[in-house]
Structure to design on (211 residues):
């Protein structure tokens, strides 16, 4: 006669089955944990940007450092006075004070600040450069054709790699680069009439004065 199965008779769960049950209970927690952490960090960042802090106080490791090495092609088919608007790269900073504005046709705040960039383009002693971020050439041409093109040069950052090297959080962002190619100031978000006159222009004047 075959010996009785003790675990089956007593109703005990085999060890292997107990291990599988335990793993199944823990698995969803391990999967959700990174999502919970990410959501918490995203919420903290959003709070800092909107309710809890000034986005201009977000530190940038590039301030008072050389601008990244890059060379962006022009926006295909974008013309001014019948000629292609040139792209630009690091070499174009030499000997000139530059304002670099990161923009995109799909960016609603970019439309809001655009009149201020047109005003900025009239400031003597600077060149206004645009980084067209993750945009299609036809959309960029339509955007600037509708609103006007205040830029001296525009580089097409189709893949967004150059913007990452500049430490861009999101469009629009605006940088001031001195005549030695050093990033001296960074403004996060769209310029408004008040921040343009009370914050950005004083910072630009400081750089132009050699401060």
């Amino acid at each position: 006669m075959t010996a009785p199965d003790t675990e089956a008779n007593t109703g005990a769960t085999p060890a292997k089955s107990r291990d599988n049950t335990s793993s199944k209970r823990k698995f969803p927690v391990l999967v959700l944990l990174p999502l919970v952490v990410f959501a918490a960090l995203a919420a903290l960042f959003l709070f800092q940007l909107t309710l809890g802090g000034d986005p201009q106080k977000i530190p940038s490791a590039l301030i008072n450092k050389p601008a990244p090495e890059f060379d962006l092609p022009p926006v295909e088919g974008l013309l001014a006075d019948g000629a292609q608007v040139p792209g630009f790269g690091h070499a174009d900073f030499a000997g000139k004070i530059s304002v670099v504005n990161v923009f995109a046709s799909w960016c609603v705040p970019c439309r809001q600040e655009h009149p201020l960039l047109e005003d900025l383009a009239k400031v003597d002693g600077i060149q206004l450069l645009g980084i067209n971020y993750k945009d299609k050439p036809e959309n960029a041409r339509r955007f600037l054709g509708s609103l006007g093109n205040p830029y001296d040069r525009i580089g097409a950052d189709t893949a967004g790699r150059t913007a990452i090297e500049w430490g861009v959080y999101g469009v629009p962002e605006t940088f001031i680069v001195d005549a030695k190619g050093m990033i001296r100031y960074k403004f996060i978000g769209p310029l408004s009439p008040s921040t343009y006159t009370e914050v950005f222009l004083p910072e630009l004047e400081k750089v132009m004065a050699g401060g």
Strands lie at 65-66, 71-72, 79-80, 83-84, 88-89, 97-103, 126-133, 153-157, 173-177, 182-188.
